[in-house]
């Protein structure tokens, strides 16, 4: 395993872990003040709009359309052309975000009605006002995403992964200190403050010598379209734009269906999604973002063996780290939700609703993580059209399953389960076309064998741990500890330790050889 990749992975994992711990505190404060009541539903409805556009005018378009050709030009030492390209991309992004924000201010009432048709008429003005508050967040976080992606490109991963912590700090300040005079609008105000803090803490690092001198960095305040690379960026950006449009449209369908269910359904999906993002960011995105700059460089320098080895490494790390995470999340769904959220306005019913959605989302965690990795690989080939076409299929599948599963006893949980199934199906299709793209240099049979083997190990351990927790541990803890929070926390810690020991032990004896080696090297590196 390359020391460079491992260093980037550890920097991203540790920095993201710290950021997500503060994110946990942010969600804890938000849940305590708002629970799953209508005020929180209104915020989630309003927040859908900037997050809808953030994906294709934020991280996705920067990482997958702007940076691959920029990385290729820098690797080939064509510095002036590279900075003209990335400057044009930034200028287009600023113009597009400002124009879109202005249009959304005009169309906000109509957009809110489309997103939440089941919302009571008396709450519609508040939802629109909430939208007015949160819309500038779209521009702020878009700029933060651009700056952060540049830092990730230059492998300044500590500050890149720690910067989102500022978002959480801003939200906590907003909710705690602004609520007395802003009421329910303290939450969007906190997100605006947090977004600004995240952006401003990253900007100084763009002027470090590593960037400024070694690559002859220079900003060009104009937009150029003449060169082939600019046309390539435009083409790839359009595919990413429409892929994100389909992906986020599914979320809007989720919100529309949930708006007709019991109060708290929208908010419980929101809280469970936020929690799912913890392992996605700490493990899944960390794997992708540590590998993709390295893989882009190897592809540009035509080092095919290193490129294929890096793809294989990404798949193996996902299997080795994501599958045991799913095991813990499925077995301990309700205690996890209770630990994180159950306080203040977040009562037993809120916990029940959110735990159902969390369990259903957890099943699709591997699909979400591998989707992020595979989609970025197609960006290296400048073939974002393939993830786009697959997103059409998965979006249609997701919506059909939404309509079917929401009518079952799962209700809002059916919406989450539909997403998990669609992500998993999309992952399979992405791997199939990726395999064709690299001329089947990664054996699909070996990948499937590793998946089945690790999956079987996690299933057996998960079943044993669930029985142990329900029949023995939960009853034993209840005899000595009366605080529900401590009961759940101690139970979770014990389950994680026992499951972790069993997993490492069994994988060490009968696990796939390559994955055993990866885990051993990762463990040694973390210890050192």
**Nearest-angstrom radius of gyration?**
23 Å
Distance between the termini: 15 Å
The oligomerization state is single chain
Query: In DSSP terms, counting alpha (H) and pi (I) runs of 4 or more, how many helices?
Result: 21
Proportion in helices: over 70%
Q: How much beta, percentage-wise? A: under 5%
- Largest sheet data: none
| Run of helices and strands | HHHHHHHHHHHHHHHHHHHHH
Q: Calculate the mean pLDDT score and round it.
A: 82
Query: How many extended strands?
Result: 0
Envelope shape: globular
What structural class should be given to the helix and strand makeup? Answer: mainly alpha
| Domain unit count | 1
Catalogue the unreliable spans. Answer: none
Task: Characterise the protein shown here.
The chain is mainly alpha-helical. The protein has one domain. Helix content is 83%, strand content 0%. The protein is built from 21 helices and no strands. The chain has helices at 3-34, 38-54, 59-75, 79-115, 124-134, 136-153, 157-162, 164-182, 186-202, 209-212, 228-258, 265-300, 304-331, 333-341, 348-362, 365-380, 385-405, 412-437, 444-480, 484-510, 513-527. α11 (228-258) runs parallel beside α17 (385-405) and α12 (265-300) packs parallel to α15 (348-362). It is globular. The mean pLDDT is 82.
At a glance:
By secondary structure, the chain is mainly α. It contains 21 helices and no strands.
């Amino acid at each position: 395993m390359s020391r460079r990749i491992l260093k980037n992975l550890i920097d991203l994992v540790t920095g993201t872990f710290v950021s997500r711990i503060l994110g946990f505190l942010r969600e804890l404060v938000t849940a305590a003040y708002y629970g799953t009541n209508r005020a929180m539903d209104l915020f989630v409805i309003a927040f859908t709009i900037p997050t809808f556009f953030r994906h294709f005018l934020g991280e996705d378009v920067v990482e997958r359309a702007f940076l691959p050709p920029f990385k290729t030009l820098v690797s080939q030492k064509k510095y002036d052309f590279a900075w003209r390209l990335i400057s044009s991309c930034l200028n287009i992004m600023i113009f597009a975000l400002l124009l879109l924000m202005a249009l959304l201010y005009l169309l906000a009432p109509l957009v809110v009605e489309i997103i939440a048709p089941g919302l009571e008429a008396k709450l519609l003005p508040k939802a629109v006002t909430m939208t007015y508050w949160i819309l500038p967040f779209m521009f702020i976080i878009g700029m933060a995403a651009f700056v952060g992606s540049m830092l990730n490109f230059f492998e300044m991963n500590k500050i890149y992964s720690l910067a989102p912590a500022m978002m959480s700090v801003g939200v906590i300040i907003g909710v705690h200190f602004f609520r007395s005079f802003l009421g329910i609008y303290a939450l969007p105000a906190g997100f605006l403050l947090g977004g600004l803090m995240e952006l401003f803490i990253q900007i100084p690092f763009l002027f470090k010598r590593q960037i400024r001198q070694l690559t002859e960095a220079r900003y060009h305040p104009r937009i150029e379209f003449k060169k082939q690379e600019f046309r390539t960026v435009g083409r790839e950006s359009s595919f990413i734009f429409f892929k994100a449009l389909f992906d986020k449209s599914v979320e809007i369908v989720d919100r529309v269906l949930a708006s007709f269910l019991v109060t708290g359904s929208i908010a419980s999906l929101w809280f469970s999604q936020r929690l799912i993002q913890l392992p996605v960011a700490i493990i899944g995105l960390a794997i992708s973002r540590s590998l993709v700059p390295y893989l882009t460089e190897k592809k540009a320098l035509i080092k095919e063996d290193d490129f294929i080895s890096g793809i294989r490494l990404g798949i193996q790390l996902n299997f080795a780290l994501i599958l045991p995470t799913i095991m813990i999340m499925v077995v301990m769904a309700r205690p996890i939700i209770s630990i994180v959220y159950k306080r203040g306005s977040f009562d037993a019913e809120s916990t029940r609703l959110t735990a159902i959605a969390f369990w259903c989302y957890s099943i699709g965690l591997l699909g979400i993580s591998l989707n992020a990795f595979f989609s970025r690989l197609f960006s290296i080939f400048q073939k974002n059209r393939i993830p786009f076409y697959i997103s059409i299929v998965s979006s249609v599948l997701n919506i059909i399953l939404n309509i079917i599963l929401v009518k079952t006893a799962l209700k809002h949980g059916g919406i989450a389960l539909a997403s998990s199934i669609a992500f998993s199906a999309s992952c399979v299709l992405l791997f199939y076309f990726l395999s064709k793209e690299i001329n089947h240099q990664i054996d699909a049979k070996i990948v499937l064998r590793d998946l089945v083997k690790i999956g079987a190990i996690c299933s057996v351990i998960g079943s044993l741990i669930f029985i142990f927790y329900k029949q023995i541990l939960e009853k034993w803890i209840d005899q000595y500890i009366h605080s529900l929070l401590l009961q759940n926390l101690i139970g979770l810690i014990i389950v994680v330790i026992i499951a972790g020991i069993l997993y490492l032990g069994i994988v060490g004896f009968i696990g796939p050889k390559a994955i055993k080696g990866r885990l051993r090297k990762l463990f040694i590196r973390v210890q050192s």
